[in-house]
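User: Study the chain.
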Amino acid sequence: WSTRGKFIDDPLMAWIEPDLFRPGWFGGAFAALMALASLLFLLVLLRRQGLMARGLAVTQDAGLGFALHRFPAALLASLSYTVLMLLALTPVGVALLIGFGSDDPMRLLLALLFGLLLSSLPLAWVSVAAAFIYPPILLDGHNGLSAQHMSFRLVRGYWVLSAGLMSMTLFAYLGILGIVGILPLL
């Protein structure tokens, strides 16, 4: 609100001003802390769901203590997933380097488009094949890298089915979120 006076005459400029919504170090640290906490609670949820899916009793070891014990392995697996996704985006980085070497903005856009097209298939493949990392960590006791290897092994031959399962789950989630999100607007 300290910058509100700048935009009294032109309120649309509030969306263009880049410094207006830039978070500081505290905002970044808080976001990182919340991401780590959400991973921890996701591990608790996935452990309980995995035990139920295997027909085992949900015991005390399905809580926060177990998730904290497996948290370093899950963090390593998440980091390896991120590295794999960045490797799949390598053509975009190369395209940006080529495009920034030119004074012509159209060359940058064409290089970026070509890089995005080249990285689309590896990115789609890696995003599905490397995504099933948490169940081996939580249910079978794997470490982060062996869980990543297990994810690739489990998806091999079933990539289309796995991608369909992930897509349908995402569409259901977005549909429910959209319905719940629109209720206050009614």
